[in-house]
Design brief:
By secondary structure, the chain is of the alpha/beta class. The chain has one domain (3-178): Rossmann fold (3-Layer(aba) Sandwich). Helix content is 33%, strand content 25%. It has a seven-stranded mixed β-sheet, with helices on both faces. Helix 7 (120-133) links the parallel strand 4 (106-111) and strand 5. The termini are far apart. The structure holds S-adenosylmethionine. S-adenosylmethionine binds next to helix 2 and helix 4.
Length: 179
């Protein structure tokens, strides 16, 4: 358990979305399709204190790049302390994403955003933005504790699969969407 994460979740549960950070089992499932052999541009949405960030870095290639968005400045020193030159920490909202990347530039987006707490228009726009930035066959991977946004994700992308991670608190659905 991360004290920093839980204290900040209590302060702003709507933004943080969970009282506990993701388990290593969930981090493993979210990064299943990463390969060290590939040279990729990866974008992480909602990095928190970096539990998934570290797993992405451990699995991605030496020449790949990871850009991690985190809106809460409290988590930013933790993320910067990871100290990996392949990582760029962006202390801004994912609403800015289209100003940071070009069309068809991104291979994979891995999201921990608490979509359930966002309004529908924001989520729809975010899906549109992600699709524009993703390369053809690029992947958008999102976990959720409920099936709340399954339909929205499924309808926004061409390919869609669901996985489940029991060893997380709470257990989570892992959605993989293909552009
Ligand atoms: C459920 S936590 C996930 C943290 C970590 N990735 C994990 O899995 O344990 C969601 C994170 O998304 C961040 N977040 C919420 N809204 C955001 C936004 N609009 N832009 C960027 N980050 C956001 C929160 O501050 C929080 O750290």
């Amino acid at each position: 358990m991360s004290k920093l994460f839980t204290i900040n979740a209590f302060k702003n549960i709507k933004q943080t979305g969970s009282l506990f950070r993701s388990s290593k089992f969930l981090a493993e499932k979210l990064t299943d399709s990463l390969s060290p052999k590939e040279n990729m541009v990866i974008v992480e949405l909602g990095a928190g204190d970096g539990v998934i960030t570290k797993q992405i870095l451990a699995k991605m290639g030496a020449d790949s790049k990871l850009y991690s968005y985190e809106i809460n400045p409290i988590f930013v020193p933790r993320l910067n302390a990871i100290g990996d030159e392949r990582l760029t920490v962006l202390n801004s909202s994912v609403a800015e994403i289209t100003s940071d990347f070009k069309e068809n530039e991104v291979d994979m987006v891995i999201s921990s955003l608490p979509l359930t707490n966002f309004d529908h228009a924001f989520k729809k726009q975010l899906m549109k933005d992600v699709k524009v930035l993703l390369k053809s066959e690029g992947q958008f991977i999102q976990y959720q504790y409920s099936k709340n946004d399954k339909k929205l994700l499924k309808n926004s992308f061409t390919g869609f699969t669901t996985n489940f991670c029991l060893l997380n608190f709470p257990p989570a659905f892992v959605y993989t969407c293909i552009n």
